[in-house]
Amino acid sequence: MAEKQGALTPRREEQRLERTRPWGRDVSPFRAMQRMADEMDRLFDDFGFGRRWLRPSWRETGAELWAPEVEVFQKNHELTIRADLPGLKREDVTVDITDNDVTIQGERKHEKEEEREGYYRTERGYGSFCRVIPLPEGAISEQAKANFKDGVLEITIPAPPASKGRRLEIAEAKK
Questions:
Q1: CATH number for the domain including 154?
Q2: Structural domain containing residue 34
Q3: Are residues 67 and 120 in the same domain?
Q4: In a domain, 85, yes or no
Q5: Is the residue at 144 inside a domain?
Q6: Which one of 73, 81, 126, 130 is most buried, counting C-beta atoms within 10 A?
Q7: Beta carbons of 152 and 84 less than 8 angstroms apart
Q8: Residue 53 is assigned to a structural domain of this protein
Q9: Are residues 71 and 147 part of one domain?
Q10: d(CA 83, CA 92)
Q11: Contact 149, 126 (CB under 8 A)
Q12: Tens-digit pLDDT profile for residues 8-40
């Protein structure tokens, strides 16, 4: 008697494919490659080389997308923009200002050398960044000043006092 094919009963071809796939039914080739890379990491761990010995992580090379942390605040009649730029020098950064915004640009260079028992490893990474900070209306960009000290860029711009808002009461809508 023939087996009745239903929505929940897998076909014979599907059953045969499932037996040949070691990780089940729904596997992408990328997931399989990631699993293999994890196994290689474990193998190197077992030999004492640590995780990701052969392939550098994004953070080690500096190749990750990076943008500096920026703090913007207004106190009295002055707008202050602070950008944390660790490891950079004043020469690595440019600041452009218009009536509408401030643009902070630069390039990070990273070099790392490591020498241990039986091997020598060196890596270099480069990456540029750009942050654009909008200015409030009335900011006087011609009088802006920038200072750089200990990896922190500080830009001050004279600006009118921040407008004080008010809270609106929400009324019940009439039907």
A1: 2.60.40.790
A2: 12-46
A3: yes
A4: yes
A5: yes
A6: 81
A7: yes
A8: no
A9: yes
A10: 13
A11: no
A12: 555 555 555 544 455 555 557 777 777 887 777
Does 54 map to a domain? no
Show the tokens assigned to 159. Answer: 């600006």
With tokens 């039914």, the residue in question is 25
**pLDDT per residue as tens digits for the range 66-124:** 788 999 999 888 999 999 998 889 999 999 999 999 999 998 887 888 888 888 888 87
Span between the terminal Cα atoms of the chain, in Å: 68
